[in-house]
Amino acid sequence: MPNPAILTVDDDPAVSRAVARDLRRRYGDRYRVVRADSAEAALEALRELKLRGEQVAVLIADYRMPQMNGIEFLEAAMDLFPAARRVLLTAYADTDAAINAINVVDLDHYLLKPWHPPEEKLYPVLDQLLAAWTASAATAAAELRVVGHRWSAPSFKARDFLARNLVPFRWVLADEPEGAELLAAAGVTANDVPLVVTADGKSLVQPTTADLAAQVGLATTPAADFYDLVVVGAGPAGLGAAVYGASEGLRTVLIERRATGGQAGQSSRIENYLGFPDGVSGAQLTDRARRQALRFGAELLSAREVVSLEDAGAARVLRFADGSSVAAHTVVLATGVSYRMLPAPGLAELTGRGCFYGSVASEAPSCSGEDVYIVGGANSAGQAAVHFSRYARRVHLLIRGDDLTRSMSSYLIEQIARIDTIEVHPHTEVVGGAGQEHLEEVTLRDTRTGETRRVDTSWLFVFIGAEPHTDWLDGAVARDDRGFVLTGPDLTRGGRRPAGWALPRDPYHLESSMPGVFAAGDVRAESVKRVASAVGEGAMAVSLVHRYLEAQ
Ligand SMILES: Cc1cc2nc3c(=O)[nH]c(=O)nc-3n(C[C@H](O)[C@H](O)[C@H](O)COP(=O)(O)OP(=O)(O)OC[C@H]3O[C@@H](n4cnc5c(N)ncnc54)[C@H](O)[C@@H]3O)c2cc1C
Question: What residue stretches are annotated with the Response regulatory domain (predicted)?
Fold first, then answer.
């Protein structure tokens, strides 16, 4: 495989040559520096690299170029090489445009011209971006192939895990010639899917998510036995806690059972998060936070589920399902919530085979030209309806109430009203589902008349409220009757401290009934279920961690 490329584009040939010269001087032995004098020529070069199966590590684009400016170029380049790091070269006068580009194209850095001396202004930035690119799972798994059946739940689980962790892979159907060849080469049959074939030709038959994580370069075991802070759950609250904890010098480990981003990572467009006037995809926002946490030195363990929490004197011990454990002075519980299952008969068996919980953005292209049913009237269902309408023939949004006004933000109601292919069905609930290999039909009931009808569909996406799944905390920390973790003032209602509380002070604001264990985000009782508040609580929990540690 040839060296990965660094591509630089500037319409001023003198500047273009100068950037390329400086890049070659430092990186020429490990990277191929590709130079273009226009955005069109650069995109053409990228297409060629893509066809040849080569990798691109960094894209450096001048902002002011005729026909297509640097931001537009980077946006188009993202479709070809989404994992490449993006840098905009700007004049001082264009700083505002560069700052806006941070949202539009998830810009990693902007460099002001002139960049001399490069040792101070260019190389430190590039060194960091190249290190991040090299360390990213994307490079480790560039050639990853997943062989499976379209309607196999284990195949879906492997695909969903890789997609949510932003690991690029190629999906190969078991009954295609390439799939059959790979299965034969691995000595297995189509009954053994998913088969995952790594870049270096290693075959993994029906891997667990932990096996998969380890193969694609995601860490799964802690590097140390003891930390200042363990954060459980890598949604916005956990990422917030990890960024602030690590940046403030705490030895921090973040543990996630599925994929960084949590619920927010599933959101196709978050429009109400501060600082992103054009909205931002949840995956993009949380991937930036993940990189930020890693840059500050936080450790991230993927595909690891915490199953118990114990008070061991000054230490707090968290145990994994395989019996191993990790200990720390303090813990932030940021385990959020998960979708409630639809209790309709027939659907449980079809989960992952046509019936999905959450939007599962990776499935959207598979719905092209088909009818999709979405259950739920809150923003998450609305966002999914808008997202799926780009692919599906028709999106049916099923709600129990009269209309969306009580449960959905007005900006989304307006968007939905403008899309002809979305149909809202009020007073409708799903009461059954059926299918052999996969979902083939659902039964709908009119909540006013009780009348039922069957509709043919292979796609049902369910968004019917969420619950915290905190059974594993039973007996460790106090929870409310729905399982949300009680903290601070909610623990001392009536003037009494929680049972077993031995300290001569009340629990701090986000502190649970176990001293030194805090809860942040959706898992906390009475929390506001929003990205901004989850991030804020993650940050606030860290300041309380400091207060706790100082008093020890
Ligand atoms: C589709 C969708 C769209 C949304 N849109 C918006 C929006 O536009 N604006 C907005 O403000 N909010 C939105 N929300 C709500 C917002 O995403 C949540 O409020 C926010 O993600 C809560 O963050 P959190 O970190 O508390 O929990 P979560 O995001 O739920 O993250 C918790 C994480 O903990 C992990 N975890 C759970 N248990 C364990 C365990 N035992 N061990 C290890 N890991 C564990 C989970 O896998 C998960 O990754 C949306 C939600 C959804 C589902």
Answer: 5-128
Are residues 211 and 235 located together in one domain of the fold? no
The number of domains in the chain is 4
Same domain, 170 and 250: no
- Whether 264 maps to a domain, the answer reads yes
Same domain membership, residue 523 and residue 400: no
Q: Which atom of ligand 1 is nearest to the CA of 338?
A: 30
Among protein residues, the one whose CA lies closest to atom 45 of ligand 1: 233
Residue-range definition of the domain harbouring residue 392: 347-464
- For residue range 446-463, what is the model confidence (pLDDT) as tens digits? 999 999 999 999 999 999
In 10 A of CB 322, how many CB atoms?
Answer: 10
Specify the pTM: 0.76
Q: What are the distances in angstroms from CA 182 to CA 52, 214, 228, 344?
A: 21, 21, 46, 38
Give the residue with greater pLDDT, 93 vs 367.
367
Domain end call among 93, 111, 138: 138
pLDDT band at 1 (very low <50, low <70, confident <90, very high): low
Nearest Cα to 371, choosing from 352, 354, 396, 399?
A: 396
Q: What rounded mean pLDDT belongs to the chain?
A: 91
Cα separation, 538 vs 510, in Å, equals: 10
Candidate from 244, 263, 307, 527 with most ligand 1 atoms within 8 A of CB, to mutate = 263
| Residue 173 burial (CB count, 10 A) | 16
> Which of 464, 489, 519 is the last residue in one of the domains?
464
Same domain, 123 and 267: no
Question: What residues line ligand 1, using a CB cutoff of 6 Å?
Answer: 232-238, 255-258, 262-264, 266-267, 270-272, 305-306, 334-337, 358-359, 379-380, 383, 521-523, 529-532, 534
Average pLDDT over residues 76-102: 84
For residue 254, the model assigns a pLDDT of 98
How far does residue 346's CA lie from ligand 1's centre (Å)?
Answer: 27
The pLDDT tens digits of the residues spanning 344-373 come to 999 999 998 999 997 666 677 788 899 999
Q: State the distance from the centre of ligand 1 to the C-alpha of 237, rounded, in angstroms.
A: 8
